[in-house]
Write a structure and sequence with these properties.
By secondary structure, this protein is α+β, with helices and mostly antiparallel strands. The chain has two domains: about 90 residues; about 240 residues, Bira Bifunctional Protein, Domain 2 (BirA Bifunctional Protein, domain 2, 2-Layer Sandwich), CATH 3.30.930. The protein is built from eleven helices and ten strands. The strands form two sheets. It has a seven-stranded mixed beta sheet with strand order 1-5-6-10-9-8-7, sandwiched between helices. The chain has a three-stranded antiparallel beta sheet with strand order 2-4-3. Strand 7 and strand 8 form a beta hairpin. Helix 1 runs parallel beside helix 4 and helix 2 runs antiparallel to helix 4. The protein starts with a helix and ends with a helix. Bound molecules: 3,4-dihydroxyphenylalanine. The site of 3,4-dihydroxyphenylalanine has 11 residues, from strand 9 and strand 10.
Length: about 350
């Protein structure tokens, strides 16, 4: 009888080892633990055995039964876990789910305005050039007809920087405007020339809602034979039509800049009050957006161009003011505070 039990155990264990799925496990359970299993038969036959044998064989058989039942539970648990793992990895890879949108960045409002301006002027034949942000006093002031002691220097609070050694007699600064590129371009290129210069400029100013020490400008320069004030106005009118829309009125008034003669300031009608006067335009109905004029003969000369033969016009505009006005933003510092709550609005 003992032998029979051992054989049964060996067979059941061998058979269990080759069970590969739930259906096979179920068949195994019926076969070795079911009502018609040999184990049950042995248990039933116990009553016909003598008392002594009944005790030992009974205990033996029950032990086997428990062992097989435990193995069955273990195997069931293993299948359970494998299938739930498979389920969750299927979930993680559910290709039928709609994709998660990835967070897209966007362009800074100042960058967008710069790009728009470049497109407009490029379509009018202007080439885009860039220049150094650290500049010589000569290009930033001297060559633009702003000699030392000229009061125009006072309007441009300057960050001076130390010149490289060996250049002690030349003064260096962070450019206060993009105008120095007028000279650099004229030195290198023969007329006819038409350029715009987008870039950063720096002024040593106390920061407040309308002043920051770093901002952007776009400079424009056109030099050719026979260029007149009409070309200047025509170009800037066209720019305004394209940028601000055809319905916005444009105003030119006399102004002074040492590097142009005559000099003008251009303003566009205030978008908020349509010229009536409001807080945004300081009750004037107009918003100044740029300075311009006919290039001063001394400036042409400084660029190596003969003012008897050639003439030109130039203009320079501040960039931050444009989105400031367009979106009625009341503090210029917001542009550079890197606050995403602000930037995400554009
Ligand atoms: N550079 C001047 C400024 O920063 C702006 C300007 C005025 C530029 C008149 C020009 C110009 O080219 O013709 O205030």
């Amino acid at each position: 009888m003992n032998e029979q039990i051992n054989e049964l155990k060996k067979e059941a264990l061998d058979s269990l080892a080759s069970v590969a799925n739930r259906a096979e496990l179920d068949a195994w359970r019926v076969r070795y633990l079911g009502k018609k299993s040999r184990l049950q038969a042995i248990l039933k036959s116990l009553s016909s055995l003598p008392v002594e044998q009944r005790k030992t064989i009974g205990a033996e058989t029950n032990r086997l039964k428990n062992e097989l039942e435990n193995l069955l539970k273990e195997k069931e648990a293993a299948f359970e876990e494998a299938s739930s793992r498979a389920q969750s990895s299927r979930d993680a890879l559910d290709v039928t789910l709609p994709g998660r949108p990835s967070t897209l960045g966007r362009l800074h409002p100042v960058t967008r305005v710069l790009q728009e301006l470049q497109e407009i002027f490029a379509s009018m034949g202007f080439e885009v050039v860039e220049g150094p942000e650290v500049e010589w006093d000569y290009y930033n002031f001297e060559a633009l007809n702003i000699p030392k002691e000229h009061p125009a220097r006072d309007s441009m609070q300057t960050f001076w920087v130390e010149a490289p050694s060996g250049d002690d007699d030349r003064e260096m600064l962070l450019r206060t405007h993009t105008s120095p590129m007028q000279i650099r371009v004229m030195e290198k290129q023969e007329p006819p020339l038409r350029i715009i210069v987008p870039g950063r400029v720096f002024r040593y100013e106390a920061t407040d809602a309308t002043h920051i020490p770093m901002f952007h400008q776009v400079e424009g320069l056109a030099v050719d034979k026979g260029i007149t004030m009409a070309d200047l106005k025509g170009t800037l009118y066209e720019f305004s039509r394209r940028f601000f829309g055809p319905e916005r009125r444009v105003r030119f008034r006399c102004d002074f800049f040492p590097f142009v003669e005559p000099g003008v300031e251009m303003a566009v009608e205030c978008a908020v009050c349509k010229g009536k006067g409001c807080r945004l335009c300081g009750q004037s109905g107009w918003i100044e957006i740029l300075g311009a004029g006919m290039v001063h003969p001394r400036v042409l000369e400084a660029g190596g161009i003969d003012p008897q033969v050639y003439s030109g016009f130039a203009f320079g505009m501040g960039i931050e003011r444009i989105p400031l006005l367009r979106y009625s933003i009341d503090d210029i510092r917001l542009f550079y505070s890197s606050d995403l709550r602000f930037l995400r609005q554009f």
